[in-house]
Structure to design on (123 residues):
């Protein structure tokens, strides 16, 4: 079992920056990766970025490429997302999630979720 708690969020004007973080506890050795999802009002939840826990390899959705940077600190089981040049379309609830390892060592499902934090960008 893994527990995930999020920190950060807030409101900024377009072009501004925010940083959100989350900390995992419990059986963190069972995690394959951690990721950030976001869900805007009336929209489906989508994966924004992810980072593998062991190697730190990252992936970004095209919508945030060049603006967002994800990182992780293994010693304190913390993942952070630096969001620069924020735009109104980035407004959403952001969710931190932990991805399980598969039985063969490959990636499994996102099974553990944080409570969500609101990011609001005004024009």
């Amino acid at each position: 079992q893994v527990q995930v708690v999020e920190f950060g969020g807030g409101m900024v004007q377009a072009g501004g920056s925010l940083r959100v973080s989350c900390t995992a506890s419990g059986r963190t050795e069972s995690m394959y990766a951690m990721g950030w999802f976001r869900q805007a009002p009336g929209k489906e939840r989508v994966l924004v970025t992810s980072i593998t826990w062991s190697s730190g390899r990252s992936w970004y959705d095209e919508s945030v490429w060049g603006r967002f940077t994800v990182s992780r600190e293994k010693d304190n089981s913390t993942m952070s997302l630096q969001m620069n040049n924020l735009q109104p379309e980035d407004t959403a609830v952001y969710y931190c999630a932990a991805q399980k390892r598969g039985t063969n060592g490959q990636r499994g499902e996102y099974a553990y979720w944080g409570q969500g934090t609101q990011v609001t960008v005004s024009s």
Q: What stands out?
A: Residues 99 and 110 are 4 Å apart (CA to CA). The chain has a mean pLDDT of 95.
